[in-house]
Amino acid sequence: MSLHLSVLLVYAAILMGIGLWIGRTVRGSADFFVAGRRLGPSLLFSTMLAANIGAGSTVAAAGLGYANGLSAWWWVGSAGLGSIVLAVWIGPRIRRIAAEQQLRTLGDYLEYRFGEQVRATITILLWTGTLCILAAQIIGIGWVLNVVVGLPPWLGCLIGGGVVIVYFTAGGLLTAAWVNAVQLVVLLAGFVVALPLAVTASGGWANIYEATRTVDAYWNVWQGGSSGWFYLAMLGPAFIISPGLLQKAYGARDDRTVRLGVGLNAAVLLIFAAMPPLLGMIARSVEPGLDNPELALPILLVDVLPPAVGALGLAALFSAEVSSSDAILFMLATSLSQDLYRRYVDPDADDRQVLAVARGAAVAGGILGTVLAIVAASIASVLELFYTLLTVSLFVPVLGGLYTRRVGPREAMGAIAGGVGTFVTVQVVAAGERMLGMTPAMLGLIGALVGCGLVAAGGSRNPR
Fold first, then answer.
1. pLDDT score, position 376
2. How far apart are alpha carbons 374 and 330 in whole angstroms?
3. Which terminus of the chain has fewer Cβ atoms in its 10 Å neighbourhood, N or C?
4. Averaged pLDDT for residues 147-156
5. Same domain, yes or no, for 168 and 36?
6. Backbone angles phi, psi at 224, to 5 degrees
7. What are phi and psi of 303, to 5 degrees?
8. Count of domains in the chain?
């Protein structure tokens, strides 16, 4: 058995053990859903950052760096900029409302602010998107195991999905917060150690530049290839109104915790955003002919770096994929149990029943996400679908609901219809490419604003 595989197997066993141990302290659905609303700044920071650094922030970002160069910074950098808005304005405000009204999910907030119809509509949209992003994380795990030991990607997906299901199902947000703290240490240590050693192993920055300087706009930070500043329209808003991140903020003990925990998460994201693209660029200088750019990072860690450093880097990569997977399962399990089961199936369900349904939903969601991962094309493709759907459907209703009484149920439905309708139309007509110089995400946001505005102009303001 190789050193790389041994490290990953032991590490996976440790994560599951911690999850099962902490899960013994979970006594009810409040612990599972919002960690008893007692997370401090350090735990909120670690669980937020671990959720934000996943397959998209590592494997996909390195793949974009390999293909497009420095402009891939915007893939994760946009998440950091969106997180600043969440830390300073949106997070504290919605946490306060959630604590006062005893809200547990974003669906609870949408019904509190806009009514049952908006809640049901968004819930259905999010189930589709959530499975897509869960599949993206599990694809990353499958590819890591494929490169390390040659396992078929489908088998790697099964193993990765199983690890996440075991430790998250034990205790929801409470176990995820503690496991994420361990994962975060390994993740950041792995990337901090791997980057300078990868530069040295490839012959230094001069050699890296010389090997890639002929690639058009490769060293342009604003735009190169399919990457650039325009990611901000797709990813920035998604990290402001993501249900999984907002529900983690619900678990904070006070507003100061949200500002500190989420703010530090934003600062680290802005710095970390450069690491995977740079590693992808280094990989291109030493392995220029990869058919699949998203394999650049695991191949670099296995084939270029010393075994011990490569093993640490792979553990960091595994941490990223697994930690984001539990964040997605959190969204899915809480939505199915609270937004569907308790709201529509059995409104009189007691706490024990809701907790059992949440755990069952986590298992079912993990299985479905794993199946989708096995048949999906790539990480970036499914992430783009999820983030764009999240942005065009939720951004206007959530912010409008928090900051103005002029946005009521009809206006929220108009925004959802306008945003999703515009996005789907652009996807069909332009095959996902730009139209009128704008990306589908940009046009979808404009459609949401127009839909909201037209409904507001066409009738009296709703008393809610």
1. 67
2. 21
3. N
4. 79
5. yes
6. -160, 130
7. -95, -25
8. 2
Chain Cα centroid distance, residue 298: 20
pLDDT score recorded for residue 191: 94
pLDDT tens-digit readout, 161-199: 888 788 777 667 667 677 777 778 888 899 999 999 999
pLDDT at res. 38 = 87
Same domain, 329 and 442: no
Structure tokens at 146: 């494929």
144 vs 284, residue with greater confidence: 284
CA dihedral 144, 146, 147, 148 (to 10 degrees): 80
- Cβ(315)–Cβ(307) below 8 Å: no
Element (H, E) at 223: strand 223-224
Same domain, 461 and 339: no
Q: What is the mean pLDDT of the segment spanning 382-389?
A: 79
Q: Give the Å distances, CA to CA, from 117 to 286, 339, 408, 413, 416.
A: 54, 12, 12, 8, 12
Structure-block tokens of residue 169:
């199902």
The closest alpha carbon to 75, from 50, 58, 87, 51, belongs to: 58
pLDDT tens digits, one per residue of 408-446: 999 999 999 999 999 999 989 988 788 988 989 999 999
Measured between alpha carbons, how far is 454 from 102 in angstroms, rounded to an integer?
33
Task: Note whether residue 463 is domain-resident.
Answer: yes
Nearest to 318 by CA among 1, 2, 11, 64: 11
pLDDT tens by residue, 66-113:
999 999 999 999 999 999 999 999 999 999 999 999 998 899 999 999
Q: Is residue 396 part of a domain?
A: no
Residues near 249 by Cβ (< 8 Å), separated by ≥ 6? 44, 86, 91, 94, 95, 98, 258, 262
Q: Work out the number of other CB atoms within 10 angstroms of the CB of residue 197.
A: 15
Domain of 432 in residue numbering reads as 404-464
Give the whole-number percent of the chain exceeding pLDDT 90. Answer: 47
Let me know if residue 426 belongs to a domain.
yes
